[in-house]
Design goal:
With 281 residues, the protein is α/β, with parallel strands linked by helices. The chain folds into two domains: 121 residues, Rossmann fold, CATH 3.40.50.620; 150 residues, 3-Layer(aba) Sandwich (Rossmann fold). The chain has ten helices and ten strands. The chain has a ten-stranded mixed β-sheet with strand order 3-2-1-4-5-10-9-6-7-8, sandwiched between helices. It is elongated and about 65 Å long.
């Protein structure tokens, strides 16, 4: 895996390097740290920031590369991933000049919408990543989210919860009351669509190499509210969500999906991984 860590020199953006180390990604592949300066005067300060981030990643070695570039942050980051084969982009949750502020036009907001690679946003990074929440829509595009989340989780001992949020209103005529209010375990026993998805997801995660505990979970209600409630109640260290373009969606529905991802990026109390792979463009 080749990880691109982006920093504007803010303490929060340095958290991205800490999270990459906590997930053991720096010891299993290549890492490039891209420091973005908007003026020539920032070059010396960014050199010190890069030295600290290298230390967070275990010290300089051939697999770790650092670069300082001058210009517009989102344009430079998007150009970098077009020119070189990265697998993951990591940023901090708050930048000095709004580098990663979550609002229309911000760098992270633009990356979350335009970057066709998984985006890892670091926030409140703990000493050890112990619990990961992976959200699944129980549909085919969710398998890519599960795959990427599992690849990250397979490097460590973190327990994983698979969460699917169901509406309390039947979306299919054949849905029964039992299906609408079943637990994850009950859905798996009954062989509902969600239950079958959980079985397949867990089977695929084991094949990828996840050895830690995997717990399926169903919640009922509004997607964003239920995910944020689960995060608060479960004390998770990382949230994994998908932001997939799917054939057949209207532009309005695509905007709604982007708004869900933006809202979770803004309000999640922990780090967030947004999966938007290239093949969903």
């Amino acid at each position: 895996m080749h990880v691109l860590i982006c920093t504007d020199g803010s303490p929060s953006s340095e958290q991205a390097a800490v999270l990459v180390e906590r997930l053991s990604l720096s010891s299993t592949g290549r890492v490039t740290i891209l420091a973005v300066a908007e003026t020539e005067e920032e070059h010396e300060r960014l050199s010190g920031v890069l030295a600290r981030m290298l230390a967070d990643l275990g010290g300089a070695r051939p697999e770790l590369e650092t670069r300082i570039v001058l210009g517009n942050p989102p344009e430079l980051i998007l150009a970098e991933v077009e020119e070189r084969p990265f697998d993951l982009v990591a940023v901090g949750a708050h930048g000095r000049r709004g580098l990663t502020r979550f609002k229309t036009g911000s760098t992270t907001g633009r990356l979350a919408r335009e970057l066709h690679l998984p985006l890892l946003v670091a926030r409140n990074v703990p000493d050890q990543v112990r619990r990961i929440l992976i959200c699944t829509g129980a549909e085919a595009p969710s398998m890519e989210t599960l795959k990427v989340g599992s690849q990250l989780a397979s490097h460590g001992p973190a327990e994983i919860t698979l969460l699917h949020v169901m509406s309390q209103i039947a979306l299919q005529p054949e849905s029964t009351a039992d299906e609408l209010f079943a637990s994850a375990e009950g859905a798996m026993e009954q062989g509902t669509r969600e239950g079958r998805h959980f079985h397949e997801a867990i089977r695929n995660m084991r094949k990828i190499g996840v050895t830690a505990k995997i717990t399926p979970r169903l919640r009922y209600g509004l997607v964003v509210d239920e995910i944020l409630s689960e995060l608060q109640e479960g004390g998770y260290d990382l949230l994994v969500i998908g932001a997939h373009r799917r054939p057949g969606l209207t532009r309005w529905l695509e905007i709604m999906l982007d708004d869900v991802a933006d809202h979770l990026l803004s309000h999640a109390p922990c780090s967030v991984l947004v999966v938007r792979p290239a093949d969903t463009v």
